[in-house]
Amino acid sequence: MNPGIEFRNVSKRYETRAGTPVAVDDISFSIARGSLTTILGPSGCGKTTTLRLIAGLESPTSGRILIDGKDVTTASPAGRNVSLVFQSYALFPHMDVLDNVAYGLRMSGVGRQEAGRRARATLEVVGLVGFDTRLPGELSGGQQQRVALARALVLEPAVLLFDEPLSNLDARLRREMREEIRSLQQRLGLTVGYVTHDHGEALAVSDEIIVMDRGRIAQRGTPRELYERPQSVFVAGFMGEAMLFDGMVEASGTIILGPLRPVSLQPVLPGPVKVAVRPEAWRIRGDGQGMPARLLKSAYLGSFCEYVFETEIGRLFVISTDVASELAPGAQVGLELAAHGVSVLPSGPADGASP
After folding, report:
1. What is the number of domains present in the chain?
2. Distances from the Cα of 256 to the Cαs of 136, 245, 250, in angstroms?
3. Tell me: the pLDDT tens digits for 287-296?
4. Which domain holds residue 170?
5. Distance, CA of 97 to CA of 139 (rounded, Å)
6. HSE of 345 in the Cβ direction (CA atoms, 13 Å)?
7. Residues 12, 60: contact at Cβ < 8 Å?
8. Model confidence over 215-272: pLDDT tens digits?
9. Which of 178, 199, 228 is the last residue of a domain?
């Protein structure tokens, strides 16, 4: 079966003169039909340019782009059967909800009655029955996002693209809408490309994640693979908070981190390494076992506590879900490492971009 989206050695340079930075630098990947792949990375990494290349809003400098097995490298946006949900929603303020959703159909030559019927059916899919005559200004941010989603879905696209779709919503609405987008994608079997800079959002909605850095693919894989087995310091840091330590791997395979002997989830070669430790990987012991630590600061956040400990390997940021036994500053405890949340990486520059 052909992939839903395929990039073959695609590059994009906005200026042709020598020395101009490349926005997208010779990347190749595929997105399976009926799956959701998130393109993740910091500002300026090339993720939005990649999305615009899929949509046909940008033309590649070199390489080929295929959608459902068809080469669309030179095709116009209208010739790609792709819908894009913008960060700003881009709703027409003077049109009611029904007309906003039906707009694309009307521009495609669909009659008003049929366009209205299909628009109402799609509004039902996104949970907006009875909102037909409301204007965008009368809707909440979450409702406007649903209208934008309905306007994209009503065109029955081969590929649905999202550009930072939840950035304008508060935390509760972001969680609700990401669940809604994921549920719709799975129920309707949509092929989705999703761009965000938020690693938590990417972990929550994705079948696969592509992490980009300076126009190149740093790593791709399932959410679990990228979080638990990053291949570079850059990916380890971008997939969630992590502290980096200098370690050593002995010829026997034993990993040395001060008095600790962490376990790696992937094979590591002898020599100097970087050990990335996530805050939730630390286990606090009150029985004197483990690496000695003295609590400097604490913060209670409801479902967990945040701690800063002083230890022989430096100050450590630790998250504990044991809120019933909150520690007070000055407490003397022992710290151990779990396997989950610890990554052992080659020692070297933290650029992360693979050749």
Report:
1. 2
2. 58, 11, 8
3. 879 999 999 9
4. 5-228
5. 9
6. 29
7. yes
8. 999 999 999 999 999 999 999 989 989 999 999 999 999 999 999 999 888 888 899 9
9. 228
